[in-house]
């Protein structure tokens, strides 16, 4: 499309074009994401950045071989999409750019002789909706609480089908009473969110949170929440399944404390 490029993004180009809307190394979350990426590129991770000649970065897709995915999914042999996003400006939404970036991933997976491509979706913020995947021939192959879906496009019909790790209640057992926040540098937004939530938890609710920083894909795949890299647990129950604002955390706690 005229005036639009999809850049196969190296670490130097991440610093140039940014990632997840972050570009300033002084902004909490961005330097941590950069360091995370440096470790992941050797595992086969790829980022493709949607760049407009007029307006700069307007989207991205991040994907990695399934055995290294940071979601509680068994997808060995598949390419796994962590995230896909289009439209920091509304003008770029619903123009087919998401489909173009998805094609990049599918092509890379075919060239790499993967069984196919997998992704976790749900309605709402922080997750791509499943519609763009369905249009490309993906199918829902598994579900997880509360409303997560695992979608797969298979190239090899004889290959094993990816699935969620499951055993959610068993995974939760290691987190007892009190407040636990699970996070990872895969999502740069979580630094700011966790810092604010931790302060509110202490100042308003008298809770000192146990913050679990996931260090590798295996730890993320052992998460008790299908989002993998962010989860808030209070007294053994999940109260947030994806990154939330400090205001949203307060609203949740106020309802619990009523």
Describe this protein's structure.
The chain has 258 residues and is an alpha+beta fold. The chain has two domains: 4-164, Gcn5-related N-acetyltransferase (GNAT) (Aminopeptidase, 3-Layer(aba) Sandwich), CATH 3.40.630.30; 168-257, Glutaredoxin (3-Layer(aba) Sandwich). It is built from eight helices and 13 strands. The chain has helices at residues 11-17, 30-40, 97-111, 131-134, 168-172, 190-205, 217-221, 246-257, and strands spanning 4-8, 46-52, 56-65, 73-74, 79-86, 116-121, 139-144, 148-154, 163-164, 179-183, 210-213, 230-234, 237-240. The strands form three sheets. Strands 1-2-3-5-6-8-7 form a seven-stranded mixed β-sheet, with helices on one face. It has a four-stranded mixed β-sheet with strand order 11-10-12-13, with helices on one face. It has a two-stranded antiparallel ribbon with strand order 4-9. Helix 6 links the parallel strand 10 and strand 11 (210-213). Helix 6 packs parallel to helix 8 (246-257). It starts with a strand and ends with a helix. 42% of the residues are buried. The model has no long low-confidence stretch (mean pLDDT 93).
């Amino acid at each position: 499309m005229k005036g639009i490029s999809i850049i196969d993004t190296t670490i130097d180009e991440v610093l140039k074009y940014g990632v997840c809307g972050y570009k300033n190394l002084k902004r909490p979350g961005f330097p941590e994401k950069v360091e995370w990426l440096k470790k992941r590129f050797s595992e086969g991770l790829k980022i493709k950045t949607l760049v407009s000649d007029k307006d700069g970065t307007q989207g991205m897709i991040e994907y990695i071989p399934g055995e290294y995915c940071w979601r509680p999914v068994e997808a060995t042999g598949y390419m796994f999409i962590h995230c896909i996003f289009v439209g920091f400006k509304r003008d770029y939404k619903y123009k087919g750019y998401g489909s173009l970036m998805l094609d990049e991933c599918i092509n890379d997976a075919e060239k790499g002789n993967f069984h196919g491509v997998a992704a976790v979706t749900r309605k709402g913020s922080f997750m791509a909706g499943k519609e763009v995947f369905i249009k490309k021939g993906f199918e829902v192959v598994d579900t997880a609480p509360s409303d997560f879906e695992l979608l797969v496009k298979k190239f090899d019909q004889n290959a094993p089908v990816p699935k969620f790790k499951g055993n959610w209640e068993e995974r939760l057992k290691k987190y007892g009473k009190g407040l636990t926040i699970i996070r990872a540098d895969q999502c740069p937004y979580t630094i700011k969110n966790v810092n604010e939530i931790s302060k509110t938890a202490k100042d308003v609710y008298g809770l000192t949170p146990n913050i679990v920083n996931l260090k590798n894909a295996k730890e993320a795949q052992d998460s008790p929440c299908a989002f993998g890299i962010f989860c808030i647990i209070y007294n053994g129950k999940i109260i947030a399944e994806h990154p939330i604002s400090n205001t949203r955390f307060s609203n949740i706690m106020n309802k619990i404390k009523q």
